[in-house]
Automatic annotation (TrEMBL):
Pfam families: TOM20_plant. Central component of the receptor complex responsible for the recognition and translocation of cytosolically synthesized mitochondrial preproteins. Together with TOM22 functions as the transit peptide receptor at the surface of the mitochondrion outer membrane and facilitates the movement of preproteins into the translocation pore. Its main location: mitochondrion. It is found in: Mitochondrion outer membrane. GO terms for cellular component: mitochondrial outer membrane translocase complex. Belongs to the Tom20 family. It comes from Medicago truncatula (Barrel medic). This is Plant-specific import receptor subunit TOM20. PANTHER family: MITOCHONDRIAL IMPORT RECEPTOR SUBUNIT TOM20-1-RELATED.
Amino acid sequence: MNFLRDYSNLLNAREACKIAEAEYIKNPRDVDNLTKWGGAMLKMYNNGDQDMTIEDVILKLEEAVFLDPYHHEALYCLGEAFAIRAPEFNDKTSIDYYSKKAIACYQQAFDLDPSNEMYRIMMETYVKGIKKILAEDEQLMTSVSEFYPSFGTKLFEVADELAMAATVTEELRGKLKQMLKNQQRTNLIMANMMSFIQSRFPGEDVYPIIQAARQAYYIFLFCYPFYPFCSYNVVLCFG
């Protein structure tokens, strides 16, 4: 049933937005219409409309407040939008900024219409919620500060281990590159050797000769300490 109610609210909010948009074309300075439009957009956002962002809601309501800074309904809706925007940030500075703007809008709306208990209740509830969040953040920071000395030492140990691992990895990468280069050189030598043997013994079964030559070459590589220099000479000979 909650889903059906939310879906119905979303459809109603969309319809209200369409009506307000049509009225806006006729009279873009109608503050009541702008407030209704912003309020409908806020409902769409709260009901999970993917095409609506809280920034769009804030811009629309700020337009209404700009035209009439004493419109208490526009101020209240703008306070709601700021209150929703604040927790979406991770940094304390942005949270404080939007929280203070929300409280200021609630306060102005209540000052302009003191008979509206909803303004007062919403403002008090929001302030209590913000104080609770700040208290939890302060407690978390205290816990982190107490934990930091041992945690920081462990971090440095892990960093040292990672640095050592990076050094070893770089050495292995260099060895692998050298092995690949050597293998490519060997493949080139063997290809030249096969071409040479086939050109010297045309039409004959040269497979036994090639196998013997390959074995002799590997023995040569194993025994001779100056592999790169000799490999280069062999390439020249067979090339």
